[in-house]
Amino acid sequence: MGILEEARAARDAGSAWLARDLLTDHVEHERDPEALALLGEVLYDMGDLPRAGAVWFAAGATGPEVDSAVAAWRQQTGDDFAAMWDSLPASVQAEPRARRVEALRSRALDAGADLGSGPSESGDVGDLRDIEARLREPMEEQSEGGRDAAWLMAWILAVAFVVFAAIGFVTALGWLFPD
């Protein structure tokens, strides 16, 4: 019986922890998208949304559960790209990497993270770090100055609020003092 069958049997028997352990060990050393997807499901069912999000990201999974798990993963790491990279299985960190995983690694390096030679240089899946199923959706790109669209929108909304507050204040004064 293969790892996936063993994990499914353990999960069906109510031993989610055993399925998790089998799959976690397997994806640490083997690049297996199906095992990553199943591990994400097991972790999600166990209520470990951040880890499920990391694994599903690495697997390139999609869906509403995946979106909520990835959001929990990003929230837990505070969008710290180095912490996100470290939470991935070693097999996922090994070359060749999926585009989304390579983008995460580049962002971690751009942020000044010291990723060492680890998985990226060795190519030995057995020596690699953690996860292969991380975020499938591409991360939002930042502009040259390090400011993103959310930052720009926040400033625009703040300025609009001040302008409308001033207009409202002047209007209220006009009502109080009609002359």
Tell me what the structure shows.
- This protein has 179 residues and is mainly α.
- It is built from 10 helices and no strands.
- The chain folds into 2 domains: 3-139, no CATH class; 147-179.
- It has helices at residues 3-12, 16-29, 33-45, 49-59, 64-77, 81-86, 90-93, 99-110, 118-122, 149-176.
- The radius of gyration is 23 Å and the shape is elongated.
Relevant terms:
179 residues, mainly alpha, 10 helices, 65% helix, 0% strand, elongated
N-to-C SSE string, H for helix and E for strand: HHHHHHHHHH
Number of helices: 10
Mean pLDDT: 81
Q: How far apart are the first and last residues' alpha carbons, in Å?
A: 89 Å
How many domains in all? 2
What summary fits the major beta sheet?
Answer: none
> Which quaternary structure do these chains form?
single chain
What structural class should be given to the helix and strand makeup? mainly alpha
Helix content: 55-70%
Number of strands: 0
Gross morphology is elongated
Work out the strand percent.
under 5%
Rg over C-alpha atoms, rounded to the nearest angstrom: 23 Å
Query: Which runs of at least 5 residues are low in confidence (pLDDT < 50)?
Result: 117-144
How do the helices and strands line up, and which of them pair or pack?
Layout: H1 3-12, H2 16-29, H3 33-45, H4 49-59, H5 64-77, H6 81-86, H7 90-93, H8 99-110, H9 118-122, H10 149-176
